[in-house]
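Figure 2 data, in text form.
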Amino acid sequence: MTIGDDEAGDGGGAATSPPSPIRLGLRENAAQFALLVAVNALVGGMVGQQQTVLPLLAEDEFGLTGYTVIFTYVAAFGVTKAAANWFAGTLSDRYGRKPVLLAGWLFAVPVPLMLIAAPNWGWVVAANVLLGINQGLTWSTTVVMKIDLVGPRRRGLAMGLNEAAGYGAVAVTSLIAGYLAGEFGLRPAPFLLGLFYIALALLLSGAFVRETRAHAHLEAGQHTPRADGLHDHLHAGLTDRQIWAQTSLREPALSSASQAGLVNNLNFGLSWGLFPLLFATADLAVGQIGLLFALYPGVWGVGQLITGALSDRVGRKHLVTTGMATQAAALAVIAASDSFGGWAAGTVLLGAGTALVYPTLLAVIGDVAHPAWRGRAVGVYRVWRDLGYAVGAVLGGIVADLLGLHAAVWAAACISAASAVVVAVRMYETHRR
């Protein structure tokens, strides 16, 4: 399967160079795929550098005590990341993937510097606005590029590797940042990691990453409709408005994935702002809090190496349903606990539930969306999913202020259980095994 490489280069080459063949598949594109995995690890590391530190910084250096106020930086991050996801999908379909990836990394450059120098909490919120743009543009683009490269057969595995790299880096960097904060103080040491990540990512993305839009064009040319006729209305010529409607509300699998993604990240957003404060009520050391926080994305990240590939074998729907139910149970364990042991068990279980869901939902979008508008469908899905950061932060902050930290976790558990029911009732199996 080949096609002329008129769109696959980095924006041009010598006119005398023969076109390189374009092939779909993980093995056929192993070098570029591995490079994009490394880039996405750096994307995740940008979040990990601050997750353990910022809630403690809010209380220790800025004197913020209201949970809703502290969570403003998570809400700002979630809203801007959600909006950036849509632009990432639209611009990558229109202009190519690589320019969007590079633009996303440029938005990251001021973030560590602002966090190091911040004289007040407003600077932290502003830095997280820029971080949200960075995450939306870069993470969405690496997702779309990997889907482009591997084609339809190994989509779940590809998403598992992508998300494992990103959230594995969140876990590792959270752990390192917690150690640095405990040894050298909350600033500037933990945020120096971010400066290193940005420099390395700009080098890799600018010099070595190649455009992948031609791979999507190749797949579109080979696209065949489902035998059951389910997707006959999802043809190549949908408008942006129609893509929004199908992904958000009308198409059962796409819209079920969008709501499950929102609830999944509601849990992550709530944990980001609330878990360090909850764990601190037991007088745990900063290093212990960092370890507890790292367990969640750590199990999540490693687990996706298994669950993404598993969805290619057993299908998508049952993994999503089981994953959302597991998250509900995990949050109940965390809410009912008040010690390191209980919280460790709950965060490990929460990571396992998230691992079942996260790469599988992206694979669902890739299964259903036509290659001609797949980038925009991924963008819409990620808009809804990443709004969960803001919803989780605001909901968690309000409930924590009114009823306490444990009550906020119980609320998230109930919402996760309801999401599992919606998926079980509405989503159909999307993987054509």
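Caption note: Residues 1-19 have pLDDT under 50 and may be disordered.
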